[in-house]
Amino acid sequence: MGETVAVCDQNGNFLAWGAYSPASQIRVRLWSFNEEEKINAEFFYHRIKNAMLVRERTVPLSETNAFRCVHAESDGLPGLVVDRYADWMVVQLLSAGANYWKQEIISILSEFNVKGIYERSDVDVRRLEGLIETTGVLWGEDPPSKVLIKENNYQFFVDIQKGQKTGFYLDQRVNREKVKKYCSGKEILNCFCYTGGFTVYALAGGAKHVISIDSSETALLSVTENLQINGLPTEKNQCLEADVFLALRKFRDEGRAFDVIILDPPKFASTASQAQRAARGYKDINLLAMKLLNPGGILATFSCSGGISPELFQKIVAGAAIDAKADMQVIERLHQSPDHPVSLTFPEGEYLKGLICMKNPTN
Is 357 a catalytic residue? Predict the structure, then answer.
């Protein structure tokens, strides 16, 4: 499982080299269209090296030491995700092919000046490939319980062993800076805040007060820690452990209002077949948020669901505005950070989409 096979047309003409996965609905994930290319350790070295060179040109390494090094298909390595957190790398092997070449991949990554490499292949997609979920140290030192990283010269504690995804939402790095500029002197509501990425940026941008909502008590404890490590006033942030949907309804019933609302929910739809059910969830939270916005207020709303296209997401948000009777304008379109590139031949790699919308000042 994961062995290299030749993909040919019905006449036996070579098309590509790929990794075979008998348990998956995607039976072959392609490595190369070059018949002369050998799929071996050298192949993976060059692909990983090229990915690293891209990051050197797209990540401000003097002020950021946490970023995605390898973004699977978009870097020509289907099923391989590699994130760097200061001196540690976190690896996800999500396909049979990536898993087959595991030892060679780890050997290559160990050459990139790291203290340790940790595996976080504890995701459902592994089962679709006939693989079991697995985590643990693959090379080098055990990571500390919390790794201190730097992003745009802000600091964050990251739990790479048990945190969501590989520990932190690296794909929002650029968007956090963009949202910050709307926060000066404002009342902020940060929904699905996780460990407080947007909260840190909001208070650094001069926010008057922030309410940070998440259903995880552990995540909320990290919000306070991350504010403290950045020297930001914790008294200007209120952590609220709650279901966001219920909290938004409660705020509505209480007549609360905010100047900036951030909606960064978890994935509602992994595939297009789940889009209709997910659309209801996205519409619900956006409708409630729009009702809570002050006139002239800002809504920063996101979807990381691969099954929701940018066009569909805008239609959902537009439908929410109509039902909320809110006159909204899109003033910025947001995407994943450039260390999460999108190959022109793999548009599905563009999974994160966002809109910054302004409510009509007279609405």
Answer: no
